[in-house]
Amino acid sequence: MGHPTPPAWYVISLRPQGGHDALRRAARRQGAGLLALSPWRIARCADDATREALRAALNCPVVVFTSPAAVAAAHALQPLRSSLGQSWLAVGSGTAAALRRAGIDDVAFPARMDSEGLLALAGLADLRGTTLGFITAPDGRNLLVPTLEARGAHVLRAEVYRRASIPLGTRALEALAGLEKPACLLLSSGGALHQVLAQLPDGLSGRFRALPVVAASERLAEAACEAGFARVVLADGPRPAQLVKAACTARLNGIR
């Protein structure tokens, strides 16, 4: 057997530790390698207060999940069961798929898979007198809760996991410093971007900001610009294939 062909270019992932596999597969299909810069890991909450908050949230007539990690953490605490008349909503197709795997067959999610898209769903238009369960992380989807409350919802929040900061790996930083092939930063979390920027050595910070960025949403594109990135393009959505496709198109169009 011959040696595998070296990647012609790279994508850089800021996803949590152990969460890069789907992006790596999508990158490989486009002839790209993946460099993982994880600024945090997912830590599930399993204390009594979390269990009680989750139990209350799952009993609400409307239940919203903000990420696949929220589904996995909630399902680890208790079985997910839909009651008659309940509405289950997810911020995107990945979260909806995770809910279906956990046993919730009827899940609504928006075509535009971000906070703004979720808020545009008909089921969240008028929430006067509605108690809504919101399953997330402590800093998850900050835009959503104030808007839902402004529409009349009484929100019961269950924070079932948290993002625990970790140091950037020495090998990853060395790989970034030694990167000689074209690369593109894939951005699906503003918090992750700020965590990475706060940890980068001075000698790497400018080089990192010189990378082109593919953002999963307009809000993240704005966050990248505000952080000092000059070359930012918008993907069709947050799924790995969408992010890598946008990066591939940007590269072919000369954004290097």
Which descriptors apply to this entry?
alpha/beta, 4-stranded parallel β-sheet, Rossmann fold, 11 strands, single chain
Describe the protein in words.
- By secondary structure, this protein is α/β, with parallel strands linked by helices.
- It folds into 2 domains: 117 residues, Rossmann fold, CATH 3.40.50; 121 residues, Rossmann fold.
- The strands form 3 sheets. It has a 5-stranded parallel β-sheet, with helices on both faces. It has a 4-stranded parallel β-sheet with strand order 5-4-6-7, sandwiched between helices.
- Helix 6 links the parallel strand 6 and strand 7.
- The protein is elongated, with a radius of gyration of 19 Å.
> What is the helix fraction of residues, given as a range?
25-40%
CATH architecture descriptor name of the largest domain: 3-Layer(aba) Sandwich
Q: Which strands sit side by side, in order, in the main sheet?
A: 2-1-9-10-11
- Average of per-residue pLDDT values: 92
Number of domains: 2
Count up the helices. 11
The count of β-strands is 11
